[in-house]
Amino acid sequence: MSDSKREQAERQQLLSRIQELQDALNNVGAYVFTKDINGRYTFVNRMVCELFNCTPDQIIGKTDEAFFNLAISNDLRQNDIHVMENNVKVESEEVNYIAATRERRVYWAVKIPLHNSTGEVSGLCGISTDITERRNLEQQTHEQKILLDSILNHADAYIYMKDRHFHYRYVNSKLAELFGVSQAHILGKQDADFMPLEEARKLNAMDRRVLRLQRKQCGEETITHPNGEKRHYWSIKVPLFKENQVDSLIGISTDITEIVQLRKQFEELANTDALTGIFSRRHWMERAEYEFKRARRTGHAIAVILFDIDRFKHLNDTYGHLTGDRAIQMLVSVCKNILREIDLFGRWGGDEFVAMIGNARFEEVLLPVERLREAIARTPIMSDEGEPIYITSSFGVVLSHQHDTLANLFSSADTALYRAKCEGRNRVCLFKPDGVGGGSSRADAIVK
Ligand SMILES: Nc1nc2c(ncn2[C@@H]2O[C@H](COP(=O)(O)OP(=O)(O)OP(=O)(O)O)[C@@H](O)[C@H]2O)c(=O)[nH]1
């Protein structure tokens, strides 16, 4: 082969090799370019052409000024100068603004110096990857996290996430404060790491229900804190699913201690009589119904005693209402001393009182009632002038029979009390129905 033919063949081979390399660079998925020492493009791959919307010929020989708005961001040129002046490789993020569209793009740029045959820097080669979308996404995620964190950390509730084994995956700052440690310190740990096992078990009971039933659970939770303080929380716990299985749960617990205490106070107020502190009529009835049903189940008899201060109106009219109040309080205190803890005792209203004695026997029931009557009669109260005053009271007693209802018992006790009043007051009258299981209104045994 002649020299010129060989040269031609070698040239052809070289050209096709360059073409292969160019094809490879066109498909590399990054912006690839070279520049001379003055920043003029000497090579650009297809992605650069597409970015500038130009042919390679329209780009080669021009500097970045033609394509980017360097007045807004000069990252690009500064990196180029740094590479060529210091003969070093630079890897950094660059923010560029496309001149034609004013679009802001972020790149990860790797730039290396190119050298001529004498080893001097003659330009640079750059490979830039567009990371604009990734950065935008990261920015968005970051902003959302800040938003979420500030909501969760400022919410007036304890918010947390636990895995299926009740290890904390997230806690808001309020919960970290409650445990007295940092948020990071709680992650991966369980309730038992911060409180006695028994308390942790109580908290985990609802967690377990969420896992077992695979649905939202709500309810009250009570924890005794290390300082001995008992606090109540209203908790909502929701399962989170992964591949159709509960993977974790999210909990929101609100401190309702003050509400629970108020509720208790209201209940106590509603259940007790303000003047004497004993059961109010409504609460007494609730308890009496329960006791009555229980007595029926067990087959035990109960006694209902209705009693009333004699001529109380006269006492009020003569000595004033405050003295009347003291009489009521004296009667209550005498009764509390004589009745047993288990006997239900309440104020029926005005100067009328009611007691229920469980497990009562006919021959025994009148004895404590008689003791009540006597004790009231011999305990003086003081008038405003310091003068001792004695009061008496009348009692209607009834013993339950198998077929009685609570309403019947009351009506019978009332009848017996009425009879005690009619017979002269200051006495105990026992209601006795005519015949076995009868419901006569005749009270025929009066004891004084
Ligand atoms: N001081 C005082 N008086 C009350 C209270 N509640 C009701 N009363 C009064 O109790 C009196 C009840 O009188 P009555 O039901 O007529 O009966 P009584 O005068 O006791 O006559 P008898 O029951 O027939 O012996 C009324 O004057 C009521 O105003 C209270 O909390 N304090």
TrEMBL record:
Alphabetized InterPro entries for the sequence: DGC-Regulatory_Protein (IPR052163), GGDEF_dom (IPR000160), Nucleotide_cyclase (IPR029787), PAS (IPR000014), PAS-assoc_C (IPR000700), PAS-like_dom_sf (IPR035965), PAS_4 (IPR013656), Rev_trsase/Diguanyl_cyclase (IPR043128)
Residue ranges annotated for the PAC domain, each copy included: 91-143
Residue ranges annotated for the PAS domain, each copy included: 17-63, 144-214
Pfam families in UniProt: GGDEF, PAS_4
Location of the GGDEF domain: 300-433
A GO term, aspect molecular function: catalytic activity
Species the sequence originates in: Nitrosomonas nitrosa
SMART domains registered for this protein in UniProt: GGDEF, PAS
Protein's name in the database: PAS domain S-box-containing protein/diguanylate cyclase (GGDEF) domain-containing protein
NCBIfam families listed in its UniProt record: GGDEF, sensory_box
